[in-house]
Design brief:
The structure holds two protein chains of two kinds. Helix content of chain A is about 25%, strand content about 25%. The longest helix of chain A has 14 residues, at about 65-80. In chain A, strands 7-8-10-11-13-12 form a six-stranded mixed sheet. A three-stranded mixed sheet of chain A has the order 2-1-14, with helices on one face. Chain A has helices at about 5-10, 25-30, 65-80, 95-100, 105-110, 125-135, 185-190, 195-210, 235-240, and strands at about 35-45, 80-85, 115-120, 140-145, 145-150, 160, 160-165, 170-175, 195, 215-220, 245-250, 260-265, 270-275, 280-290, 305-310. Chain A contains nine helices and 15 strands. By secondary structure, chain B is of the alpha+beta class. Helix content of chain B is about 30%, strand content about 30%. The longest helix of chain B is centred in the first third of the chain and has 18 residues, at about 40-60. At the A-B interface, α3, α4, α5, β13 and β14 of A face β1, β2 and α1 of B.
Chain lengths: ~300, ~240
């Protein structure tokens, strides 16, 4: 169903919503020009899986970058505003990385038009120097807001966030990474200092919303989806921050049937997603935004009003 | 795309901030790249192609040969003996020092056998896909006993330089280079950094100082194998039972 049709239907009252406080008249009152749709496509932990998994393996035949690229291109043909994002661990997992050091991964992601990625722990597997050596092949930024690169040669190559403009909307994207100590051998990550990702996320997201006037803030996280311990994860990050709308996660190779919706510090919903690993899946989030003409939408609480499985 | 089912979650998000636009809803999909996904992007394919061909030529390079099938098994096996010997010998060569024991974890060998015929670089990657480094630990006899007990409890792993008998899930009658293990002596152990960091229940090794050869175990195996072919020899078939159950 097309977004506008859906909204129209909603306005006419074709969808029964029960006892919600949904501002139907406001939504129905908007003209077509008041709605913008952004399609976010995402991957995580692609781990040098250039070709589909080989015969005999658990995931035989799944994934493959040429197929993913075709799918991305097809969606770009259908949608006006598309962001293609990745949540880190591009490196390591097949001989393509062992032999070519990651250049092919970056070349292909550049050709596919990736807009941004963040740093995963395995992206340090060839050391900071090994990563820098391959960066000329990456035509997309690496975002991280919680590593201090002051004493690292990576400093000039990493930015905390990037603001994208699609049509009339602004999207702020930033990255957070996992504690490297104990996970990555010291000499591989050098003098990069890990800082609290929650603090970094809060201050970065605040700046994106308030200083950059972003309509939507997306966090690329390599923290991991969740842990049995109280170790910081995407679910914890979602609960303990504000101004983050979407968390695209990685590291734990988590396959989710559907994204988790978590309420943040302000009791506002945050979409937390992760799509397994190795490019087995491409995540897709279609975000619809509405122009805040009357400045009064914000007083209505969020309502999850539909959950269904459809076959396209 | 018709045959794929998508989970649709539609929700309403109303941002707390008063921006130009508010999030109205988010529809979420997961698009699987199935084996029967019919199309490939030709530009991407043309970038991959030369790498794939070059990789195949690298991976297909023959570096050694096997004359008698080598199998992986517990408590001891011909393939396990070969790789444990390689671990010990290469650690000794890289550190220019004498090494007493070589250890590999059973689960770290990722193929069941190396069968008669040529051995390629690709075979070595299949055997050891992980980028584990070859490291050396100096252990007291007591620590060695504790490590071997854990190996005995899991049914026996590939070892070199040491023999023992599994008795009541512990290592009994431990002999190192034919001599009884002494609790107070120091022994030098060649092992992967994965195990030395406590992996595969090697908790007793965690935190101990490591001497890193900075050589990947896979590259060490490769170099060891190449030494045989440089001398025009097949990989040795060593069928001795270093661990007895």
């Amino acid at each position: 169903m097309k977004r506008r049709d859906f909204i129209k239907k909603l306005g006419i009252g074709g969808v029964v919503l029960g006892a919600s406080t949904l501002p139907l008249e406001i939504l129905a009152g908007g003209g077509q020009e008041d709605f913008v749709k952004l399609t976010i496509l995402h991957t995580n932990d692609t781990h040098s899986r250039i070709d589909p998994f080989p015969a005999g393996s658990k995931y035989e035949g799944l994934g493959g970058m040429a197929k993913r690229a075709h799918l991305v291109k097809q969606i770009r043909n259908e949608e006006e505003h598309v962001l293609l994002l990745d949540a880190g661990d591009i490196f390591q997992g097949t001989p393509y990385f062992n032999v070519y050091g990651g250049e092919l991964e970056f070349k292909l992601m550049s050709e596919m038009g990736y807009d941004a990625t963040t740093l995963g722990n395995h992206d340090f597997d060839a050391g900071v120097d090994g990563l820098i050596k391959q960066l000329p092949f990456a035509k997309f930024p690496f975002l991280n807001a919680n590593y201090n690169f002051d004493d690292s040669p990576l400093q000039q190559h990493i930015q905390p966030y990037k603001v994208f403009e699609k049509g009339t909307i602004k999207i702020g994207v930033f990255g957070v990474g996992i504690e490297l100590e104990g996970l990555v051998p010291d000499k591989l990550y050098g003098n990069i200092k890990y800082q609290d990702p929650i603090q970094a996320a809060n201050s970065t997201a605040y700046a994106l919303k308030n200083d950059w006037d972003c309509d939507l803030v997306v966090c690329l996280s390599h923290l991991g989806y969740s842990y049995k311990s109280n170790k910081v994860s995407d679910l914890i990050l979602a609960q303990t921050t504000e101004n983050v709308d979407i968390i695209i996660g990685g590291h734990t190779h988590t396959f989710l049937d559907k994204p988790m919706i978590v309420n943040n510090l302000n009791n506002q919903p945050v979409v937390v997603n992760q799509v397994g690993w190795a490019g087995i899946n491409l995540g897709r989030l279609d975000v619809s935004l509405i122009k805040d003409k009357k400045k009064n939408l914000k007083k209505f609480p969020p309502v999850i009003f539909s959950k269904k499985t459809i076959v396209k | 795309m018709k045959k794929y089912s998508y989970i649709f979650v539609v929700l309403l998000l109303l941002s707390a901030c008063s921006k130009a636009y508010l999030i109205y809803d988010v529809e979420t999909n997961q698009l699987p790249i199935h084996a029967d996904y019919p199309n490939k992007d030709e530009e991407i394919e043309s970038i991959i192609s030369p790498y794939r061909d070059d990789l195949a030529s690298t991976m297909d390079k023959v570096i050694a040969r096997v004359e008698i099938d080598l199998f992986k098994d517990k408590p001891s096996s011909s393939l396990g003996n070969l790789l444990a010997d390689a671990t010990l010998a290469m650690a000794s060569e890289y550190t220019r020092s004498s090494i007493d024991i070589g250890i590999i974890n059973y689960g770290g060998i990722r193929v069941p056998s190396l069968t008669k015929g040529p051995v390629t670089i690709g075979n070595v990657y299949e055997l050891m896909p992980f980028d584990n480094y070859l490291v050396v630990l100096s252990l007291t006899g007591k620590q060695v006993q504790s490590m071997l007990d854990a190996i005995a409890a899991s049914g026996g792993w590939p070892v070199a330089g040491v023999t023992f008998t599994i008795k009541d899930n512990t290592a009994d009658d431990v002999q190192i280079n034919g001599k009884r293990l002494h609790n107070e002596s120091t022994y030098r152990i060649a092992i992967s950094d994965y195990l030395a960091n406590g992996g595969d229940n090697m908790n007793m090794l965690k935190g101990l100082p490591q001497e890193n050869t900075n050589v990947l175990l896979r590259d060490a195996f490769k170099a060891y194998f190449e030494d045989f072919s440089n001398n025009d020899q097949a990989l040795p078939y060593i069928n001795e039972m270093r661990i007895i159950k």
